[in-house]
Amino acid sequence: MMTPEASQQAGAEALRPGIALNSAGHLANPFATYRTLREQHPVCRVEPDGLWAITRFADVRFAMQHYELFSSLGFKPLLQPDWLSPQCRRGGFMLAEDPPDHTRHRALVNRAFVNRVVAELIPLMRQQAGELVAQIQARTRAGQGVEFLRDFAYPYIGRIIGRLTGTEETQTLEEIRQWVAFLETIPPTRPAADYIAALEAALIKQNDYFRAIIRDRREKPRQDLITALVNAEVGGEKLSDDLLRQSLDLFIGAGFQTTIQTLNHAMMQLARLPQLMRDLRAEPALIPAFIEEVLRFNPPGHCVLRKTTAAVTLSGVTLPADEYVLVILASANRDPGQFPQPDKFDMARDNAKQHLTFGYGVHTCIGANLARLEVKIALETILPAFTAVSCPPDEALPWIDSFLSRGVTELPLQFA
Ligand code: HEM
């Protein structure tokens, strides 16, 4: 029989099994780690930092649903590290808020982010996709390879988000890219002083751009999302200039890389399964089902962050109060209890849309339909133009060095 000390130690080890999400092994194949976690340690501490991780579909959905137990204040350390000077810390507008603040702010944004705003972007999407595909065809005819991020995903999504947020009038796409790249590499611990100085300069500059756009729409209202946000009113409340600035920051922060990487994942899938490309070319009506399965299979964001407000028991394990939790959406999407044969890419599954890639509950992604439309129009333009596409194997691709998101920094493709 185990002594009480040995049994206590075994219990502690079961809760902290030494699984490192920042290890090279995990980054090479995160889905293998998630399987181990789901099967053996569905609720446990992982490295780095002994953060808690939740991996089963039912637990993940429960955590997203119960904001009173799993607070979105969990995002604060990522947005507002204490080594940044106060004027540079990013606000937690909507994303890092809980009801009732979140409810009021989301209602205001919903007033502005209506279907018409998305529909008005369609001609721009079609035109931009058409021009970029024509350039890719010219490169292909000249026997040149394509780097899909540079040649399609960045300029296509960048143009749309630039129009949506007004930044296309004030900045180049390259400037936005650099700002987003900065945000994505903000380290959890205090970095070197010169890095902090460069980051703070970039944040201050970007905030000035956002303020100028808001000032412009106050003076010269237009038919666009920013003007609608400026004028949105619910129960006598309007968004302050600072919250308007934070919403533009959030739209780019949440809607740029995520959609770019979804496009990348879609292209990689077409390259891996050539029959899929033939099926979609023959029957374009299948494109929405294909997109849903790409989102389930390879979500661009793997985790969201939460903080427990009280002790809570999931899968038989009690998480204490005030703990930071990684809620792993990408693992929930591969839970065989919810999606039979989860590692098989199958666009015929009838419950694909139940994936948690856009979240669940009060914070469900506000841009989900915009993102789906962007990817649909891109594929409707790319698929008729080429009969086949190929790309290097997963292990030869440069993956983003992050366990929070999944995507590549370059995607060499060969079209035919
Ligand atoms: C494939 C692309 C996208 C994915 C996978 C995605 C994913 C998500 C997820 C998982 C959440 C929930 C976060 C949480 O619960 O903590 C979220 C929230 C959000 N997303 Fe998206 N997103 C995408 C595209 C977009 C786009 C294009 C926009 C807008 C331009 C956008 C704007 C937002 C906003 C504003 C929120 C915060 C909502 C709230 O807190 O109530 N997203 N997104």
What would your notes on this structure say?
The protein is an alpha+beta fold. The chain has one domain (32-415): Cytochrome p450 (Orthogonal Bundle), CATH 1.10.630.10. Helices cover 51% and strands 9% of the residues. It contains 18 helices and 12 strands. The protein has helices at residues 4-15, 24-28, 30-40, 57-65, 76-79, 101-112, 115-119, 122-141, 148-165, 173-184, 193-219, 225-231, 241-255, 257-272, 274-282, 287-297, 329-332, 368-382, and strands at residues 43-46, 51-54, 70-71, 146-147, 233-234, 237-238, 303-308, 312-314, 317-319, 324-328, 389-390, 412-415. The strands form 4 sheets. The protein has a 5-stranded mixed sheet with strand order 1-2-10-7-3. Strand 8 and strand 9 (317-319) form a beta hairpin. Helix 8 (122-141) packs antiparallel against helix 9. The chain binds protoporphyrin IX containing FE (HEM). Protoporphyrin IX containing FE binds at residues 64, 72, 94-95, 106, 164, 250-251, 254-255, 258-259, 262, 299-301, 304, 357-359, 363, 365-367, 370-371.
